[in-house]
Amino acid sequence: MRTPTRVLGGLLVGGVAVLALALGGVAGASGATSLQLRAGAPVTGVGTALTAVVDSPAGAPVTGAVVTFEVHVPEFAGSPLLTIGRATTDASGVAAFTYQPTWAGPTSFVATAALGGSTIAQGTLTASVARTDPFAGPINATRTDGLIGRWAVAVLLALVLAMWITLLALVVRVQQGSPRTTEG
Amino acid sequence: MTDVIVEPVPSEAHPVDHELRHAVLRPVLETPRWWWPSVLVLGAVVALGIVAWIFQLAHGLGSAGYNDDAFWGIYESNLVTFIGVSYGGAVVSAILRLTHQSWRAPLTRIAEATALVTLPIGMIFIIPHLGNPGKIWELVWPPYWNLSSPILWDFFAVSTYLMATIVFFYLPLVPDAKVALEQLDAEAPSTRVKVRQTLYRTLVGRYGGTPTERRRLNGSIGLLAIMIIPMAVSVHSVLSFAFASSSRAGYMETILPVYFVVAALYSGVALVVISVAAVRKLFHLESYIASRHFVRLGFLMIAFGAAYLYLTFTEYLIDGYSNTAGPAAWVHQVVAGRYWVPFWFYFVAGGLVPLLIMAIKPLRTKTGVTIASVFVVLSLWVKRLVIVIPAATEPLVRAATKASGGVSTGWGTYHFTWISISITVAATAAIFLLLLIVFRFVPALSVTEMEELAHETRTQGGRS
Amino acid sequence: MSEAMIDTTTAGATATAVTIQRRSVLRAAAIGGIGLGVLGAVGGTVALAAEPASTTTTTSGPTKQWCMIIDLRMCNGCQLCTTACQTAHFLHEDQTWMKVYTMTNAAGEEYPMPRPCMQCEDPACVPVCPVGANFRTPEGLVLVDQSKCIGTRICMNACPYDARYFNWGAPEPAPKQPYAQSPEWPVPQVQGTVGKCIDCAAMLPTGQIPECATHCAMGVIYFGDLTSDTAVNGMGQTIKISTFLAENNGMVFKEEYGTHPRVFYIPGHGQDLVNDNDSGD
């Protein structure tokens, strides 16, 4: 049977054509607006400056776009994204944000620009960041810690042991008897 | 180093009371007719308790009526109660000794023996109390010790106190064992008493009864009498810390250590009265233990009883008066809620009735004091349940109600089961079983002390 | 003290045998004194040597400090968290390591409140155990070593959150587990020992969050790391902990007990979470 083959072939050609068109459209759109994400030098205690530069296809700065900065959280499976801040692009198309994390080291950022509620551009970056607000660390308290607790325990233990020794000594002392010479 | 004594001390400081010696040694030499049947019955009850415990081992603590909403219950109450009643030994023997109460003489041995048997039985309750008794050795193996734990210090305190109780029983027994040995050699030179003769010989050791040795013995007993009082106080204080180291209303009370110590003294004297009454009847010592002994012990008991009633009142008043939901709800549950029956049972049977018996002269007799003591021991056990169970069943996470003191929901329930009841009854039977055994081997009265004090009373015109 | 007590002996006593001699009491006391002196050193050594064993399971890089955030605004009380927990750890029905309480606010309205183990920084349960079966990991998890536990249940007495559950009978049988039986994964439970919420400790190194958080359909339970200040819930929503707590009035349960819980609640029903269950004194 030839007819089904032809039909299938026609569908295939048509599908490829539609896919190409669609891809071309997307490519054209992304080519229209670009987002360049950069990170400044990390400064411990201050933070890491992030800048997102949003340009139109013609290379002109996009003003008034809202850029959402996110960071991948590798602590959890799938590295979910955490929104760390938002900024609006200025006249030169630059949105700036200082990231103040509680850790230091390489971090993966995602910045997404939106205009009028729809996403227009996205950029990613992996950069090193500096710790700003260190976590105080765990309190590992046990209640015999410290000089007083330690000594109190030592004294009490000594007391208990002294009691045992005294008790045994009393028994021995009585049991032992004494030489008969002292008999009056 | 020689002891320079101003007065010449005769080698035999007191005349020998042959009648007394004979009366005291009779139960040791002749098996009373009731003895074997009693031992068998009590032994059967103890065996039932052991069977129950084996059953509990297999099925877990849930079979003893525990659950997550009632994590502590009967065994913890028993632990406190049985260790508590052992305080009679310390009080009657040590306090009366230190205050030179010469009427104590016929009572000290019974008091010390009661302490000697009740304290180990109280300690044994650690075993059914534990969920994993196979690992109890961790308590004596230092690498496992957590020195900030009240339970570990409970263990230290109680075992030290046990050691002191044993020595406190042993030391006054030394001269009596010597007397008994001489008496046995004189009265029964047969082989039937060989075990006892060996026992007495071991107990006496090289003690010869010379004045130096008597002084040394009495000095040791005196020091021990001083030592054992703070030890006894520490035991029940530390026991109370196991409860108080929490955030539960009813446990987290500054009054708890005092409360525990006074309750122990109260029930301890009461158990001594019961033991004295039983031993006096069973071993025919009526001519040595008189009504005045009971009445004086009764007064001692009721002094602690009144103090305990007062502490109960202050505790409940302050917790109930405060408008904090936890303590107020707890007091409400105990006094008027789900625990009102046991609480008021304590109040009437353990508070008012003994007070009245001691207050009304016609009731203040041997029988009266003994009945009061039975009431005290029983109701103080119930009171321990009222201390342990309500706070353990108290919900800590719950709705913050607007009106405090109201009956809140979420309270747990402790169930009494045949297992826990059997073990408790078995422990009670074990006290009497052990006492029966002890007094078949050692004289029930401290012969030497009685002879000495009688002599002293005669020569000094009497202080008793 | 001994002199005051012993010297009440009447002056005219002739029979000295019964009288407790001051000299012999003192001599006996001297034995005790020597004992005390010798043993002071021994006791001290024991006490100093008996330091709590430090747990060394730190991985490279910044130590995680696990915590949980429970957004009470979202909770509908469905108890999926409880079920998920019991399924994962093979618990009895009444072993509600993650328990949903019905609480009442000041206005008398009811609201559901999930209660896991608070993983306190200063836990009340750890110091009371006589054999040291409770411990706190460097990651901030409070765990029970069931191979040490002797079952005194004093930790159940100490915990202000009723978060501990005993194995009163035979535990629920469990098939072979992906993790070795350990304090981090106490499955199956051991009869006669205490168990409690472990924040699914064995699953955390692989980036998974606890079962209760994963299975919560409302995204109530966030599990996070205080070091990186981030937390995530079962719906993949990620939050910056410090900001989230600050903006949403985050609080801890029974703060007045000084346990410093690592579980934070976001209120939303007018509750103040100060449980006025505290004792009077």
Can you offer a commentary on this structure?
- The complex is a heterotrimer of chains A (184), B (464) and C (281).
- Chain A has 184 residues and is an alpha+beta fold.
- Helix content of chain A is 33%, strand content 32%.
- Chain A has helices at residues 3-32, 146-176; strands at residues 34-39, 48-55, 66-72, 81-88, 94-99, 105-115, 118-129.
- By secondary structure, chain B is mainly α.
- Chain B has one domain (18-460): Formate dehydrogenase/DMSO reductase fold.
- In chain B, 69% of the residues lie in helices and 0% in strands.
- Chain B contains 16 helices and no strands.
- The longest helix of chain B has 38 residues, at 150-187.
- Chain B is globular.
- The relative contact order of chain B is 0.18.
- Mean pLDDT of chain B is 88; it is low at 1-11 and 400-407.
- Chain C folds into two domains: 2-9 and 18-49; 66-266, Alpha-Beta Plaits, CATH 3.30.70.
- Chain C is built from seven helices and eleven strands.
- In chain C, the strands form four sheets. A five-stranded mixed beta sheet of chain C has the order 10-9-8-1-11. In chain C, strands 2-3 form a two-stranded antiparallel sheet. In chain C, strands 4-5 form a two-stranded antiparallel sheet.
- Chain C is globular and about 45 Å long.
- Chains in contact: A-B, A-C, B-C.
- The interface between B and C is large, with 88 and 84 residues.
How many β strands of chain A by DSSP?
A: 7
How many individual β-strands of chain C? 11
Relative helix content of chain A = 25-40%
**The CATH topology of the domain at 32-129 in chain A:** Immunoglobulin-like
Largest sheet: number of strands, sense, barrel closure of chain A: 4 strands, antiparallel
Q: pLDDT below 50 for ≥5 consecutive residues: which ranges of chain A? A: 24-30, 137-144
- From the N-terminal CA to the C-terminal CA of chain A, the straight-line distance is 139 Å
User: Biggest β-sheet of chain C: count, sense, barrel?
Assistant: 5 strands, mixed
Strand-and-helix sequence of chain A, N→C?
HEEEEEEEH
The SS-based structural class of chain A is: alpha+beta
Name the strands of the widest sheet of chain C in spatial order: 10-9-8-1-11
The chain pair forming the largest interface, with residue counts per chain, is: B-C, 88 and 84 residues
Assign an overall shape of chain C: globular
Strand percentage of chain C: 15-25%
CATH architectural category of the domain at 32-129 in chain A: Sandwich
The radius of gyration over CA of chain C amounts to 26 Å
